[in-house]
Design brief:
Elements lengths: L2 E6 L6 H11 L11 H4 L5 H11 L5 E6 L14 E5 L14 H6 L10 E5 L3 E3 L9 E2 L2 E4 L11 H16 L2 H7 L1 H4 L9 H5 L16 E4 H18 L13 H9 L4 E2 L6 E5 L4 H10 L4 E5 L7 H15 L9
Parallel strand pairs: 1-2, 1-4, 2-3, 7-9, 10-11
Antiparallel strand pairs: 4-8, 5-11, 6-7
Helix pairs in contact: 5-10, 11-12
């Protein structure tokens, strides 16, 4: 089974990117609602992502490196596993440039040469320990956790998730889905994280699924199926150059995949951890150095205290476990 990785990245220090960003956002510096500096800034950790892939997941077939036409100067574009992907290579031109991650993500299936089985990474997701193909796919299906999670209605994120759920509930009967795939929805590995599944077993409608904030395995055909039934909604909201309350998020595709039964139950929290650097920088550094998980997410925020020192500590932790250049580096 061929498995590809897809990673999205932006160099916000690129003068052309800054010029376009300022032009379309109409604002500079720290802003709100999806145009925050923390959403785009890069502190030079990308090379550790590539080092982690080469050392801990050498089985990957191809890495599709998605940008708006940028490339780190140290990256070997001629490496046989590297495929540089420009947004214009797969996103309709009328929606470019876009600074809305959900638009960049919803067209991933259009990337030329993308394998049927692929894992999607944001550039703040890192592999820090040995990981096998079976972590992402078993029996040809993505490994995932199918558990519900309550979200308060005032949450900005939930307002976007509700858009997804309208499509999901239109096409799937929750009781039928959970009865058909009972063993997947009530898998013992989920533990206490499945409590809402039991509480809502007899409720008619789907609510938010718990979302591990880390690398997500997908079938390309999942995207094709969703586009076949929601082309109008997805196309119309692709015009949202920045995040908007009318957006449909990538959770639409993941939830569809789970509702179709196209997944193998796996408690991804066993080896996955998200660290908000604003409140847990020391724990993040320790987890990297001790390789406590297979996958970690380092969540940036404009309110991180002593930002430069925090980033330096993280860099040192990466250097401790990944000191050698990868073949992806010139």
């Amino acid at each position: 089974m061929d498995i590809d990785f897809v990673i999205t990245w932006v160099d916000m220090n690129d003068p052309k990117w800054q010029e376009d960003f300022a032009k379309y956002s109409g604002r500079k510096g720290n802003t709100k609602n999806g145009v925050s500096e923390a959403r785009f800034r890069d502190y030079g950790f990308l090379k550790y992502w590539f080092r982690g892939v080469e050392k801990f997941a050498p089985w990957v077939r191809k890495i599709h490196f998605v940008t708006s036409g940028q490339k780190p100067e140290w990256l070997d574009a001629n490496h046989p596993k590297i495929h540089l992907v420009n947004h214009k290579d797969y996103i309709p031109s009328q929606f470019l440039p876009t600074y809305n991650s959900v638009v960049i993500e919803r067209y991933l299936h259009q990337i030329p040469g993308l394998a049927e089985h692929f894992v999607y990474f944001n550039d703040d997701f890192y592999i820090i320990n040995t990981i096998g193909q079976e972590r992402f796919f078993r029996n040809g299906l993505p490994c995932d956790i199918a558990t519900f999670l309550y979200n308060p209605s005032w949450s900005q994120w939930y307002k976007r998730i509700k858009n997804n759920l309208k499509i999901i509930n239109r096409h799937f009967d929750k009781k039928e889905v959970m009865a058909r795939d009972h063993d997947k929805w009530f898998h013992p590995s989920y533990g206490s994280r499945a409590r809402w599944n039991y509480l809502l077993k007899h409720y008619d409608k789907f609510i938010t699924l718990r979302t591990p904030h880390n690398a997500q395995p997908y079938l390309k055909t999942t995207f094709e199926e969703v586009w076949a039934v929601a082309e109008k909604e997805l196309t119309e909201t692709s015009a949202n150059r920045f995040r908007a309350l009318t957006d449909y998020t990538p959770e639409l595709f993941r939830t569809w995949q789970i509702c179709r039964g196209n997944f193998e139950p796996y408690n991804t929290y066993r080896d996955t951890k998200m660290f908000p650097l604003m409140i847990r920088p020391k724990q993040a550094v320790r987890a990297i150095r001790e390789q406590a998980y297979s996958l970690v997410c380092l969540n940036d925020n404009i309110h991180i205290r002593h930002y430069a020192q925090v980033m330096e500590n993280i860099r040192n932790a990466f250097e401790y476990i990944l000191p050698e250049k990868s073949s992806f580096e010139l």
